[in-house]
Every structure is written in C-alpha cells, then in structure tokens.
Design a protein that fits this description.
Layout: E1 2-9, E2 13-19, E3 29-31, E4 33-34, E5 36-37, H1 48-51, E6 60-64, H2 72-78, H3 81-85, E7 92-96, E8 114-118, E9 121-125, H4 127-137, E10 141-143, H5 156-179, E11 187-192, H6 198-209, E12 215-218, H7 237-244, E13 253-254, H8 261-270, E14 274-275, E15 284-285, E16 308-309, H9 330-334, H10 337-345, H11 349-375, H12 379-390
Parallel strand pairs: 4-14, 5-6, 6-7, 7-10, 10-11, 11-12, 12-13
Antiparallel strand pairs: 1-2, 2-3, 8-9, 15-16
Helix pairs in contact: 2-4, 4-5, 5-6, 8-12, 10-11, 11-12
C-alpha cells in the first residue's frame, strides 16, 4: 500500500491518495475519506440492493471485530473471509477492534488480552486468538490490538499501563501476522494510545513507528458510543499535533468516532486522513456543505442551529418538504419529512431505512466536498460554512 500527499492546506489538512492496495491494485482512494460503517457485515438497515441506491458509497467497508468475534467458527468455516461471506463484493475491508457507535465497557483488558463485546457478551482475545480471528475475517486492513481503555480521568499510571500492554500486544501480533499465510496481503495499522498523557503518547508513537507498519489508528481518548458526539476535539488539538509530528508523512492516519461535521474538519486540519461513518444513525442530516454557493442563494430551510433534525418531533407531522432542500438522494426525491415522521412514530422499519439512506448519502457527500474544497484551496470557506451551522467558533 502506498500513500501520497498531494497537498497540505492550513495547519496540516492533507489531500492524498492511496494506491497499490494489494488485491485491489486497480483501486485508487482519495483522502480525507470515510469508510462504510457496518454491523456484522451489513450497513445498518440496508441490504445490498438498497445500499446500491446510495450515491458515493465508499470503497472501504468498516467491520468492527466485536460484532464478529462470537461467530469466528462460522466465519472461519466459510474460508473465504467476511467480504464474500456478507456478499459485499470486491470492496476493501477494514477491521477495527471495537464498534465506535457503541460504548466500550471499562476494566475488561488485562496484560494478556483485550475484551470485546458483542450481542452475546464478552469475548476475551489474546494475541493468538486475535490473529486467528483476523485469519477468519481476512481483512485488507486491520487495527492492531490495543488497550485503549483510557479517558480524561485516567491517571498517568493507567496511561503507562495502556501503552505497555499495547506495545506488548503489537510485538506478539506482529510475529504471528508475518507468519500467517492468510494475512500475507493484509495491512496492519498500529494503535496509538496513552490517554491524555503527552509523555506516554509520545512513547507509544515512537515505539509504534519503529515497527514500520502500514498506517496508524489514534485512539484512547474516550470509550466510544453516543457521548462521543460532545467530545471536545479542539481541547486536545495540541496533544494530537504532538502525535502527528512523530508519524511518517507517507502513512495514512485513522481516527474513530469523530462524528460531528465541525469535529471532522478539525481532525482533518490536524492531519487525520480516514474516518468511520457511524455518526449518521439516529437523526436526519441537514448540513449545507456547498461552499461555492453565494450567501444570498443558499437554501433558507435552516430551522436548526445544528447539522441534524429529529424527524420524530411533532412539528414535522404536516411538513411535506423533502428532508433537505436540493438533496438528490432516493429518500428526498420520493418522500417527505411528514411521511418519514409517520413511519418513525409508528415503528415501521422503512422509516429507518429511508433515514439512513439519506444520511449516508449526505455524509459521504460531505467528505467529497472536503476533498474538493482542499483541491480548490477553499478548505477555510467550507470550515466557516459548517461552523456557522454548528455554532462552533
């Protein structure tokens, strides 16, 4: 895998390309980008035929391992990996350790293993079990084992322990990965942990970079889940910059659970290249990201200070406009806010399907807009437009 930076905007936003992607040698990925979020191998509420109606679907499918660990025997028995097992076709597969949309339970890691949680409960994975699970899934990229069970309240002692464990897991996994015949074409992304401790973050970064991996995942600031939406990325900008300055420029950087559009732009500015798309699940995205539209020509359909609206609310009962003016997604071309409101309040599955179709297309389009803005040297205009809608200063 090769990563090339085309240009850098502002303080560190990187417009780049990923090529030579193993079995996907004909594929070129443009960054910053997001991946297609899935649960158990399927996009939430969407079958393959419905997903094909969503424009701009990413070529990289994100599969959290915690959803798959309890089914390892079945997946391994199929022998062809999760991509074919879930009928996703010839898409690139990335496996993270945890689901960014679900809060991870604290205190379940130890010096020999990490705990992952699926619907059937906890599965404890040591380095040998972790690699065997990867052999069953057969991802193109995968995140290395890590103890990311830290947050702002973690002590320096706990942060040091997290780094010690993560580096131990990395070395144990590296040896098994290199010997595995099934993972010869898979790329490993090293996990950068250490909580809010700058010294431990630096130690983890330098030690991980010394192992010469294919990319890096920056985590260990929180425990994922819905509360992540209010996480103050701006408050740790200096800490993230201190990490980025030690990472090689020719390797991609991943950060999970960066959800709000203003936070995404902040992370891009700090040098993050790849994101997940677990954000667009509950509310309807109504973000205007057309930075080239003159101010007096922008849609007036902005009844919220944020990038989302809750279509469960009574005020949409007789609102027969599309979810977002000028949106060309399948939902907005065929249905109204009132109808989606009706479906959601009557518990019809179609409501969730129409909502996620709209949200995915909007979110994927947002990342395309980021790349276009950077190519046109208008990243600051896009950031200003988004910040106006989110109330970010």
């Amino acid at each position: 895998m090769k990563f090339a930076v085309q240009c850098v905007r502002g303080k560190g936003a990187r417009l780049g390309t990923l090529t030579d992607l193993g079995c996907h040698s004909n594929l070129t990925l443009e960054t910053p980008m997001c991946m297609l979020y899935t649960r158990g191998g399927s996009a939430p509420y969407l079958g393959i035929d419905v997903l094909q109606r969503v424009q701009g679907t990413p070529a990289v499918v994100h599969m959290p391992l915690n959803m798959l660990a309890q089914f390892q025997e079945v997946i391994a028995g199929f022998q062809a990996g999760m991509g074919k097992f879930s009928a996703l076709g010839n898409q690139l597969l990335y496996a993270s350790s945890h689901d960014p949309a679900s809060e991870t339970k604290s205190g379940k890691n130890d010096k020999h293993s990490i705990g992952v949680w699926g619907r059937g409960g906890k599965v404890q994975l040591d380095p040998e079990g972790f690699v065997k699970l990867q052999e069953a899934v057969q991802p193109d990229w995968f995140q290395s084992m890590a103890d990311g069970d830290t947050d702002q309240s973690s002590t320096s002692k706990r942060c040091k322990k997290a780094v010690d464990r993560t580096l131990f897991f990395l070395d144990e996994t590296l040896d098994r990965w290199k010997k595995s015949e099934k993972l010869q074409k898979s790329c490993m992304f090293g996990s950068i942990v250490g909580g809010f401790d700058a010294r431990e973050r630096k130690r983890c970064t330098l030690e991980t970079v010394a192992r010469n991996l294919d990319g890096y995942v920056i985590e260990g600031f929180h425990h994922y889940g819905p509360s992540t939406e209010t996480f103050d990325l701006h408050g740790i900008a200096d800490l993230i910059q201190s990490i980025m300055c030690h990472l090689p420029e020719d390797k991609p950087r991943v950060m999970h659970a960066v959800w709000r559009p203003d936070a995404v732009l902040q992370a891009v500015q700090l040098g993050v290249d790849i994101f997940d798309s677990s954000y667009p699940l509950g509310l309807a995205l109504v973000l205007d990201y057309n930075y080239n539209t003159p101010l007096d020509e922008r849609p007036t359909q902005r009844e919220t200070t944020g990038p989302t609206i809750d279509l469960n609310e009574k005020r949409f009962v007789d609102d027969f406009s599309p979810l977002l003016a000028e949106c060309t997604c399948y939902t907005c071309k065929n249905y109204s806010r009132a109808y989606v409101n009706h479906l959601l309040n009557t518990g019809e599955l179609l409501g969730r399907i129409l909502l996620i179709m709209h949200n995915f297309e909007q979110y994927f389009g947002f990342f395309a807009s980021i790349r276009h803005a950077m190519a046109e040297n208008k990243f600051e205009q896009l950031q200003q437009l988004v910040n106006e809608q989110t109330g970010t200063t």
